[in-house]
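User: Hi! I'm working on a homework problem where we have to compare a predicted structure to a textbook description. Could you give me the structure for the chain below?
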Amino acid sequence: MRIIDHIILTVSDLESARACYGWLLPLLGYRQRHDMGDFSGWFIEGRESPGQIWIKKATVEGTRAKFNKDSPGLCELAFSVHDRDTLHEIARGLTAHGFRILHPPAEYDYVPGYYSVFFLDPDGIKLEIVARRTN
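Assistant: Happy to help. Predicted structure tokens:
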């Protein structure tokens, strides 16, 4: 069964996004990168149905509107890590790699043990990394 096969994010500055996501996605398990002109994709290796995250360059028409998580469409993209130490290690490098932290690592009341960091990519796309404590 496939949960989600792939996701494509549209970005205004492809080279900047390649640098940001090229740092982040391998830390989250998306280690294999493939570039195709105005697209770049990262793949999870070793899975029968690999997950993929792609970025693509926005068209001239598409760059007029900035991302807004409260408009119809994507609200945020959340990634899961196994533990809080991994989450903290990634969070420490976010700003140095072009991301902006919205909410630093903390526990949230969504469900017991929900611990995450919220941040934006250079286009304002909201991202999150979650480490759930399971007891």
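For your comparison, note the following. Helices lie at 14-27, 84-93. Residues 36 and 56 are 9 Å apart (CA to CA). Good luck with the assignment!
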